[in-house]
Amino acid sequence: MTDSLQYLKGVGPSRARALSAEGIQSALDLVRLVPRGYVDRSTASSLRAVMQNLQSSSLWSNAGSKDIAAITREVSVVVTVSHLGERTVGRGRRMLQATVVDESGATAKVIFWNAVNYFGKLLSADSAFLLSGVPEYDARFNQVTFTHPEIEKIDAEEIEQLASGVVLPTYSISQKMRAAGVSDRLLRSMIDQVLDDVLGSLPEVLPSALLSRHGLLPRALALRYLHQPPTIAQAAEARRRLKHEELFYFQLRLAQRHALQSQPRNGLVMEARSPRARHLVESLPFELTGAQRRVIHEIVADMSSGSVMNRLLQGDVGSGKTIVALLCMLNVIDNGYQAVLMAPTEILAEQHYRGILRMLRDMDVVVCQVVGGQNKRQRSDVAERIASGEAQIIVGTHALFEANIEYNKLGLIVIDEQHRFGVAQRAELMKMGKHSHLQNNQTGQPPPDPHVLVMSATPIPRTLAMSVYGDLDLSVIDQLPANRKPIVTKVVFESGLPAAYEFIRSQVAEGKQAYLVYPLVEKSEKIEAKSAIEHFEHLSQHVFPELSLGLVHGQMTWGEKDQVMQSFLQRELQILVSTTVIEVGVDVSNATVMLVENAERFGLSQLHQLRGRVGRGADQSYCLLATKDHFQYQLKRNHSTTERANSVVRLRTMEETTDGFRIAEVDLELRGPGDVLGTRQSGLPEFTYANIVTDAAVLSKAREDAFLLIRADPTLSKPEHQLVKRHLDELHQHGHAAIIA
Ligand code: ADP
Ligand code: MG
Question: pTM for the full model?
Fold first, then answer.
C-alpha cells in the first residue's frame, strides 16, 4: 500500500514527485483525498443561469447576510475560449484575460493575475474546459467574471459522461501538481486504479448497532461513493457516514476524559452561605436577571460539591457577568478563602478594581491589585498582603500569576474575557494559578486546587462549546438586563462623515459621551498609534474644537491610559478617540455613541465587542460604522470579490442584529471555528470530512453515541468494543487527522 504511485498508469516519476511533495505518496493517501466538489448534469450550470442568479440576488439591497451563500457559492461550467489577451496594468503587473462562452451562448470573463504564462498556454489549447469558481457580477456591464477559477481541459468523452448522468468529483490541485500535469482527470483515473485494492482490506470501525441506528453506509462503500458516486445524493450519504465516524471518534476521546474527571476529587468545599453576597444583592440599584440568578446558583452549587470546579460562564456583552463573578467571590471569602479576578488588559483590570472597591465600599473586604505597571516597592507590598492572607479579593492582569506572587488560601480564580487569552493560554494560566499557592505549613502538602471560573462573551452554539471546552462545565447567561434598548446601528459612508460628526455633537450637547475608534492600519502598534494621534489632532483642532477630547492607544503606558480613562469616566472628556484597546469590557454607561472608522477592517466579533461599549445604560445608544464610499457603490452593485463580500456581510449583519449568538454564527460561517475560537493549537482537531459548525446535527448524534458507549463500557473492554478501542488507539498514534489507518 505504500508502493510508489509512479507505476500507476499516466503518472511517472515527475508527477509522482509532485504528488509526494503534497503528501500523496500511497494508494491510501489517494483514497483519503476529499473531493472539493462534484460536477454532474444537475450541478454544472449554464453561464446564462449563473448570470440570472446573480442578477436577482443583490446583497446590499435584499436579503443581507442570509444571502451569503448565494454570492460565495462555487459553480462549474463547461466552456470554450472565444478570446484570449494579455494586458499590463498599474506598475507593469500582467493580467491574463479570457472571454469564455458556453452552450447557453452566454459569456463570462476569466481573469488570472498569477501564473500568466501557464494559464495563457493552457487556455490557448483547442479544447473545452471545465471551469469552477465563485462568479462575481457587475451590473454596469451585465457581466460575470471569474478570478482565478479552477480550470482544466475536458475531453469529448467526459462531456459525454456528464451528459449521460455520470458524477465527476473534483479535487484540490496545488500549483506544484498542476505544473507537473496533475489534473482532476488524472486523479480520478489514479483513484480508480487503486480503489478496489484499498477498500478490500479496510475494516469497518463503527459498531453495527450504530450504523443501523443512523442508517449509515458501511465504511468501504462510503469511500467508494465519495470518489465514484452513482448520484450526487449518494455522495452526500457517503460524506454523512464519514463525518459521523470522524466526530464519533473525536467525541469518544472527550467522553473518556469526562469520565475520568467526574470521579469525585478532593476539592475545596465552599458552603453556599454568604452574608456579604446577600448584603451586596440587597444594595444593588437593580434586580438580578433570572439568568444571572440561575448561573450563580449553578456556580455556588458546583463549588460546594466537593469536586474542583472548572466552569465556563458564557454571556453576551453587557449581560452582567461581573456582578455574577463578584457575588461568587464573596461566597468564597465568606468561607475564609482568597479570590482572584484576572483581566486581559490593564485598563480592564483597573476598571474592575475600582468597580469592586465602589461596590464593596461599605463592607470590610480587603481588595488588592496586581498589574504590570507597578514599581518594585508597590509590588512587594501587595505580594506580602497576598501571602499573609490579608488580601481577600485580588484583581489584576496575568501578572497575578508571576513567580513572585504566592497566595495564602486561594479558593477561586476567575478569568474574565477569556476569549482574549486563547484556549491554550487559558489552560496555561490555570496551571500557573494552581501552582502559585503556599504549601500547607503543618503537613507540607500542597493545598487542594482552587476552583476556576472562566468568563467569555463569545456566544457559541452549545454543541460547539461542549466540544471546544470539553473539559469545562458550562453556564450560560442567556438574557440581557431588562432596561436595555437595542443599540441602533447604521453603516455610514465617508462622504457622510460630517453628518455623523454633527450627530455626535448633538448627543454631547445632551450630556452624553462618545467613542471614536480607529482600526489597526498596519500590523504595527506604532503605526496604529500614529494614525490615532493624527486623527485625534485633526478632530480636536478642526472638527470638535469646542469639546474636550482624549486619546488612548496601545503605545501609551498603563498610567497614561488609566489617567485618560478616568477623566472620561468622570465626564471631564466628552469624546474618547481610541484604537482597539478600548474593545474589551470597558464600562462607561453615559457613553451613547460610537463611531468606528474603516469599519470594514474589523472582524465581526470585534465589531460586536466594540459596540458593546455603548448601550450599557437605559439611554438609547448608537453605533455608526463608517466605511469607504466605493463600498457603497460596490455593495449596491453587488460587484465584489469574496473578501469584499465578506466585509459587506459583516457590516450588514451588524446593522441587522444585536444578538450575539446570531453574530457568532455568521462569524463562524465566514471565518471557520479555528480562527473564531483561536483553537488551532489547543485541542480542536482539523477535521477531514466534518465541519464542526455546519455539521452540528451530526455532531450531537455522534456525541450521544460516544457518551452512551463510554457510560456502558468506560474502559472499552467488552469484546464487541475491541474494534473501536483498536481504532481509537491507532488514531491516537497518528494524531487526529488520520481517520483511515
Ligand atoms: P459583561 O457581561 O459584558 O461583562 P458587565 O458585567 O460589565 O457586562 O455589566 C454591564 C452593565 O450592566 C454594568 O454597568 C452592570 O452594572 C449592569 N448590570 C449588570 N446586571 C444588571 C441587571 N440585572 N440589571 C441592570 N443592570 C445590570
Ligand atoms: Mg465584562
Answer: 0.68
